Amino acid sequence: MLLATSRYNERMPGGHQGDDVRPANSAQTGHGVKLTYDDFLLFPDDGKRHELIDGEHYVTPSPNTKHQRVLVKLLGAVVSYLEAHPVGEVFCAPLDIVLSEHDVVEPDLFYISHERAAKVLTPQNARGAPELVIEIASRSTRKRDETIKRRLYERDGVSEYWVVDPELDAIRVYRREGDRFDRAVELTSERGDVLTTPILPDLEIVLTRIFAEPAGASPR
């Protein structure tokens, strides 16, 4: 049962302006009560990203311009690859990944093979981990992306996790080694790095292209 549902249409407790991510804690869930996917489905369609992590409700405002430019370029690179190598599908937010009753996330991008999709993909969502998850971080989401979300994806079997940092023009890659992620490898546009992955052989993500500003673009 969703508690105090009317408050979801108001500013979150302690509400801040700008690019914030915050748990909607006691005002929504009560003390010690974890929200579930059924509760998640009652959240407002307000243009913000709503997620559950261990039953906590997190809200992220709409992304900024640089975020969206990077997202489009990454999506285009993976789509072009899959058109030539039709081994799976790529999806972008908002699309729910239901990892448990209390863990529902909407990553910026995720790739899932046809083999894996046959087991977890439904017309409404994915009910299990995809092979590759990509999150585009901001100042306020970076810590969460690198800690609780990384641990969640590690726990639930994601093979590879990319944290894209548009401020630093960098991508940190977490790759599974056994039952956990290996130490992150950081690639940067400044060094001219090219990201490759065993999940999608022959895919090359050229970071200078991903982070390049379009001609005539306004400053960040």
Write down the overall geometry.
Answer: globular
* Helix count from the secondary structure assignment: 7
Q: Just give the CATH class of the largest domain.
A: Alpha Beta
Helix content: 10-25%
Query: Got a strand count?
Result: 14
Outline the biggest β-sheet: 7 strands, mixed
User: Which oligomeric state applies?
Assistant: single chain
What is the name of the CATH architecture of the largest domain?
Alpha-Beta Complex
CATH superfamily of the largest domain: tt1808, chain A
Order of helices and strands: EHHEEHEEEEHEHHEEEEEEH
Radius of gyration: 18 Å
Q: What number of structural domains do the residues give?
A: 2
Q: How large is the share of residues in beta strands? A: 25-35%
Which segments are poorly predicted (pLDDT under 50) over 5 or more consecutive residues? 1-29
**What would you call the structural class?**
alpha+beta
Terminal CA distance reads 42 Å
Find the CATH topology of the largest domain: tt1808, chain A
What is the average per-residue confidence, as pLDDT, rounded to a whole number?
86
